[in-house]
Amino acid sequence: MHHFLNILRYAKPYKSFAIGHIIANIFFALFGTLSFVALKPMLDVIFKQENIFLDKKPEWTGLMNIGDYAEGQIAFFMQEITGGDNSKALIFVVSLIIVMFLLKNISGYLANYFLVFLRNGVIRDIRNAVYKKTVDLPLSYFSEQRKGDIMARVTNDVSTLQYSFLPVLELIIREPLTIIFTITAMLIISTKLTLFVFIFIPFTGLIISRIGRSLKRKSDRVQREQGVILSTLEETLTGLRIIKGFNAEDKFYKNFSDSTSKFYHFSNKLLNRQNLASPTSEFLGILVIAVLLWYGGNLVLSNDPNLELDSSSFLIYMGLAYNILTPAKAISRGLYNIKQGSAAAERIQEIIDTENPLRDKPEATDLKGFTDTIRFDDISFKYKDDYVLKNFSLTIKKGQTIALVGQSGSGKSTIANLITRFYDVNKGSISIDGIDIKDITIKSLRNQLGIVTQDAILFNDSVKNNLLIGEIEATDDQIIDALKVANAWEFVKELPDGIDTNVGDSGNKLSGGQKQRLSIARAVLKNPPIMILDEATSALDTESERLVQVALENMMKNRTSLVIAHRLSTIQNADQIIVLHQGSIVEKGKHSELIDKKGVYKKLVDMQSFE
Predict the structure, then answer these.
(1) Where is 583: in which H helix or E strand?
(2) 292-206-187 Cα angle (round to 5)
(3) Residue range of the domain that includes 211
(4) Whole-structure pTM value
(5) Do 93 and 42 contact (CB within 8 A), yes or no?
(6) Same domain, yes or no, for 20 and 155?
(7) In angstroms, rounded to a whole number, what is the distance separating the alpha carbons of residues 458 and 462?
(8) Into how many domains does the chain fold?
(9) Residue 106 pLDDT > 90, yes or no?
(10) Residue 609: band (very low, low, confident or very high) from pLDDT cuts 50, 70, 90
(11) pLDDT at 205 over 70
């Protein structure tokens, strides 16, 4: 129930629809009960009861006699309308029943009309909230999570809420009110018979609650297995080339089929338990009806005048008793749905409630530009247990190109992750123009940075829209200028639709070198004062590397650049080369100076292995 209340918080912006929904449901429940009550005068006419007409208005004698008073009002009104003619009375009563059912169904439609906007609005806002939190969370969060499981929470779990939790919004008002109005009418007709019914209600409620007790656990298993299925599918599509190249189709198929088999068994158990709800509640309801038929029938047959239960009243009473079954079944289904939906709500809330350690400080300032130095002051950092950077210090002056080299795992890419605040340092500080980057808003910090990574990440969109990520307000002319700087205009202008050509999923319609030059153009269009190049040419062939290297040199002009290097060609003209080994600086200087030292850098050059 706690999770249900959390979800209801998202209904606040739609309170006008909620109010309309509640009012319509009140009328639905009221007219639904009155439509049964209106059958009594019709039955009285058919059975030719003597008191179907009254010549004078009945007098109010107190709440205890409200049933007689209401019946007398109807009898007097029928006398006024029909003049005591049974045929006219029958037409009048039938018309009254039609009007009651019409009003009931109009109210039901309006309730559903308002619920559509309420439910879809809540689902949209929940999905947006989960997506926004997913984007805001740091990279460290996703290193511990399956992408498929995150996708399952944003898609399947939210959809589960739509069809489990949110329909309960309808049950909160409509079904309880239908039961209340119906029981009120039953009490008015026969208090003794109604009190007899209440003996069986706790018994039926106990059985239904016992059936639904394990639904949340079963639903949670189903939803987790959906995440595994999506993860397997996502990994398969990403690594399809490797899977085919190593003839691993059977292995991945086995993993996938194992997961779908688990999902099959878990779903069977869950749905069979859900399917038990409706027949169980209906059978228990029929048992109550059967007992009523026996007990109430005996009351009618006894002809005791003190009971005031004639045959037409008993038939109406039975109709009202049966009318309770539908809302009772709906409520029992709603309780099952809440148990099922609470597992989905818990998984969604888990993401929303995850603490983001990289939030801006309340007093964080905006970084307006870069004018002097970037300083790494005795920083240490670890992803888990072991430090990958230890007591690292470095000062980068504006306009300098600093290269970081070293073997794989030496901490090069970690430095790029730290200056962009994808992670925060464990010890020491990083400052720009004397301001600790922890005291700067993340958005304004990243506005000063341009990033080109080893993997050229492009989105399934046009060339133009991929570049506009860097500067959303850029004109077509500015985009073309950036493409020229990145040495990419030559091939872009030959594409079928120029800058409006779709590059395909992950840019797979382009070569590796073309994708990398587009990612450089994106950074150029952003035009930041600080550029970070994370092994931007390491995955390219020699010809592509030459074209990309020219683009990089064009881009780095008049900018401060931090280059994480893989190949000699990228860094030989750097102002300073920093050689890292196991998270510490072992050498630094210009290319020629380090070659003369014949130390670690010289060995790396000889091996041509800047990883």
Answers:
(1) none
(2) 35
(3) 2-352
(4) 0.71
(5) yes
(6) yes
(7) 10
(8) 2
(9) yes
(10) very low
(11) no
Asked if residue 134 belongs to a domain, the reply is yes
Domain for residue 544, yes or no?
no
Does 424 map to a domain? Answer: no
- Of 506, 527, 548, the residue that ends a domain is 527
What does pLDDT average to over the chain?
Answer: 78
Scan for tokens 């995150």, then name that residue: 150
- As a whole number of angstroms, the longest Cα–Cα distance in the chain is 123
Check which CATH number belongs to the domain holding 522 and give it.
Answer: 3.40.50.300
Can you state the angle between helices 168-189 and 191-198, rounded to 10 degrees?
140
Domain end point (choices 527, 561, 582): 527
pLDDT interval class at 214 (50, 70, 90): low
- Per-residue pLDDT at 469: 85
- H/E element holding 188? helix 168-189
Buried b or exposed e, range 382-406, using 16+ CB within 10 angstroms: beeeebbbbebebebeeebbbbbbb
| Rounded CA separation 576/572 (Å) | 9
How does pLDDT run across 145-193, given as a tens digit for each residue? 777 778 878 887 887 777 776 667 667 778 888 888 888 888 777 777 7
Q: Domain check: are 201 and 345 in the same one?
A: yes
Instruction: Specify if 331 maps to a domain.
Output: yes
**Helical residues (DSSP H) of 486-511, grouped into ranges:** 489-492
pLDDT (mean) for 447-456 = 83
